[in-house]
Amino acid sequence: MRFNTALLHSGKMGDDVTGATLTPVYQSSAFYQESAQQHEKLFHNKANGYSYTRINNPTIAAFEEKMTSLEQGIASIACASGMAAITNALLNIVNAGQEIVASSSLYGGSIDVFHDFEAFGIKTHFVDIDNEEEIENAINENTRVIFAETIGNPKLDVVNIKSLSKLAHKHNLPLIMDNTVATAYLVRPISLGADIVVNSTSKYINGNSNSISGVITDSGKFKWDTEKYSGMAEYKKYGPFAFTAKLRNGLFRNTGACMAPQTAFYNLLGMETFGLRMERACSNALKLAEFLSQYDDVKVNYPGLKSSKWHDTADEILENGYGAILTIRVGSKERAFDIINSLTIPKIVSNIGDTKTLIIHPESTLNAHSTDKEKEEAGVFDDLIRISVGIEDIEDLIEDFKNALDN
Ligand SMILES: *Cc1c(COP(=O)(O)O)cnc(C)c1O
Q: In testing the pocket of ligand 1, which one of 106, 150, 203, 204 has its CB within 8 Å of the most ligand atoms?
């Protein structure tokens, strides 16, 4: 099945018992067991089933299955937020005294959480992810993982996952890719060599901005050396599922990072139209980027434009489009605020990936906690506006931007 057909028809659908076309919301904290023996088996991973929603739940499992197939992995773990997914994926493999190498052009919240890890003895080296030499220099015997975003938010740098995964594997390190901005509609990082993918499903997957959530998808391909990743020894018996088994039996369940069943339902609903929404949003973003490029005093950054430093990488790595986010630099913070305030359709909102067009001044908001150096490396300037393009009629968006810029 092709992309949109698979979204609608792949995997488990609806409810076998009643014939309901949508997977019901199993709004239940716990599940009856037929016998004490069965319950014992469940707790020893010797039977399939459900015990407690903090560990798993049928609605959440249906969502996880759909994400696994979308990202072409072997297993997924749904989390309470994108940040919970990132934290759990990393802390499942990195211990105190060990290190992370990460792109310096990450989402502001991710940079913040890497700083939080310092209190637990985990150090992060932020590098220019396009610069192989800089990455190599940051790797040492304590490094346990490389982390980057497929399309950096808001720098909009497109990472060459093929070469980055080769570099990671040369050092026997797993590559974790945050695929939130690009999404599986544009790229399947696992097919290009990434080992684990995380998504903030609060964005394009959910699609309507009705709930916060995230998900971790494992390729099952990374060979965990149990001397280097000592926590993995106990889970080696699960073969390719070692990473997921360790997480679900450990940190994920013990920190209570679970998704709510209602959220899984909303996400499953959103996924039915995910491909259509992305197609429209990416097309709108390209048209808006081309329109804005006509202004001499507006500097547009969009991977779909030839002027983008990452256009060639985008053509090599991405399919179906160039994403639905663009940024513009307009000369000053004052002008940026004026433009944001003059627009009538884009809403001033801090997230991305809604059906509606959203706009923000990242420097004064999302990157408020970043140092000047971090802001510069993340491509955040005081005259920069980020636009998350929605699925409106493009003519209306262009008219609105024309009015705001001309006046
Ligand atoms: C929003 C976002 C996150 C965090 O996700 P939440 O669901 O808000 O916790 C992580 N990475 C990227 C790239 C994001 O855009």
A: 203
